[in-house]
Amino acid sequence: MTDMRILETRNGAFRIALDGAADAPLLMLSNSLGTTLEMWDHQAQALSKTYRVLRYDTRGHGQSVVTPGPYSFSQLGDDVLAILDALQIERARFCGLSMGGHTGLWLAIHAAARFVGVVVCNSAARIGTEQGWQERARLIQNNGVSAMRALADSGPGRWFTPAFISTEPQVVRIAQQWLANTDPEGYAASCEALGSSDLRPALGQILVPLLVLAGEYDPVTTVDDAKAMQQSIAGARLTTIAASHLSNLEAPDAFEAALSGFLDGLPAEV
Fold first, then answer.
1. So what's the pLDDT on residue 77?
2. Element (H or E) spanning 55, and its range?
3. CA 30, CA 8: separation in Å to the nearest integer?
4. The pLDDT value given to residue 12
5. How large is the average pLDDT for residues 30-35?
């Protein structure tokens, strides 16, 4: 049974969900831009047989705290540490997708001692361009909810392959609803965080075990982006699965197999 609640931390209130045995090794999952912790429902069910799975709504998303922007990845990364601190968890395994994956990179650079291993999915050390993110942030700031709905309408082509859009319209609609319902202020502030963050110069500092997971058909954060990260991080592994950007939704079984294959090989400390 899922333990879903609002957790008070030193950085504000975050909605979290916990699945699995309380004494199992902890795996923390971090959502992509414009989604909620529900994006991990399939993974929480599958992986909670082995791990204590902790999900959370990123700042500015879902039912977590929405603060004035711009946000930064030092702030979003520290939110992860604040959640772990509030739960009195010393070390964890971390998996994030897209924006969540970039948060994972930041943690691997700046808080490696807190993590047994990090998985960076459908992400990059530099996602997009500063100008592109600033333009999107201004669009949302100027047009609010109507701009969020327009983004949701155009989202599927960036997130999923055409075949998946055709065969799984319900999943596509749910993902669109997550984006349409995201707080405009939180979304715009997150865009500003993505626009200002370039972790490429620091990748060589990463020593924590790390898996880069890429979607073969991802047009947002490409396989080349994944290869560039792997080549810059000593010992990093790379796995590619047949999916687009939201790979955990499009190919959950392959995603979980890749994730488990990496996690199960990590040191067995809780």
1. 98
2. strand 52-56
3. 18
4. 98
5. 98
pLDDT tens-place string over residues 74-111 = 999 999 999 999 999 999 999 999 999 999 999 999 99
CB 45 within 8 A of CB 118: no
Report the pLDDT averaged over residues 184-193.
98
CA gap 131, 244 in Å, rounded:
24
In sequence order, the 6+-apart residues with CB closer than 8 A to the CB of 242 are: 215, 216, 217, 251, 254
Residue 269 has pLDDT above 80, yes or no: no
**Strands 12-19 and 3-9, bridge-based pairing:** antiparallel
Write out the two tokens for 47: 């992986």
What is the architecture, at CATH level 2, of domain 3-263?
Answer: 3-Layer(aba) Sandwich (3.40)
The distance in angstroms from the start CA to the end CA of the chain is 21
Report yes or no: 163 and 242 within 8 Å, Cβ to Cβ. Answer: no
Structural domain spans, the chain: 3-263
